[in-house]
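Q: Got a minute? One more chain.
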Amino acid sequence: MKKIVLIVAAALAMVACNSTKTYVVEGQISGLEGEVAIMDLSGEELMASATVTDGSFTMNVKSEGPAFTVLSINGQMMTPVFLDGSPIKIVGDMANPQTIVSGGTAANDGFAEFNAMQWELMGPVMSGEVTDDKVMEVFMEIEQRTAESYEKNADNLWGAYLFVSNKYREMETEEILATIEAYPADIQKMNEVALLKEYAEGRLKTGIGQRYIDITMPNVEGVEVPLSEVIAINKYVLLDFWASWCRPCMSELPYLHDAYKAYHPLGFEIYGVSLDEEEAAWKSTVEQQNMSWVNVSTLQGWNTPAAKAYSVDSIPANLLIDAEGRIVAKNLRGEALVEKLYELMGN
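A: Always. Here it is, folded:
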């Protein structure tokens, strides 16, 4: 029996080892000396390193599957490297760092093409050749070309990077999930993609027509205030996510004041969740801006559990909840809040 157990354990260990892939990254960069490394996207995990000889290097990068990584040169992050095949070839010239790009695979070739386009458009802006009144046109052109690059590379890792970093913001929740489901299993397992899927599923749970998720947070006096208790004694509650450092949030305050003045006597309340991290900044803003409604915070910034529960990835953001606990509207900005309350509560 002991021998069988050992054989099974060895077999499992072999499977585990085989689940790790090796990606070969080769480089030839003019004028390069010192050390190179492949880091994870955060720049915190070293995945492989090598000493440069005559501008050349080779690294064997081990990863459980496709990954977004970064080439580091002598401790400085230089260019994205997409682990989607082998060999990946990095070329360029240290005299012109913008020329240092990876290639040889679909994703890396896609990024190299995008990078060349971006520098072609941004070079004149950075050198001052483009007048101020034309700068916006350049940025609009880059935005358009970025969209084209995404469409062209939607089925590879460069397209996936554009998707998880920004493209998803333009999509409805169902489209985000459908895009993720269309990826191969190994891309779906990537941490960045898995987190986006979790976020999208959270958005589905907090869509219009869904029941609210209860949260309990301390107010400015340190008293824990459950959202459920506020909903129980009001006809409508605006769950409002904001922060003192957020200028658009501050721009929304006049509209919140107008809504509160007109509809608080009729059963409207605001449950304001601050994503501040500095207690003094949060409390002073509440006082100075006369935010007399319910104000709560855990002072955890974007790590605030309530923000995660409601899949909040930008602020200002809000949800209007009725007395039955149903979400009836989302992201009512400007005069849209008063207009919605008038529709629901009259005048």
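A: The first strand starts at residue 21 and ends at 30.
Q: Perfect, thanks.
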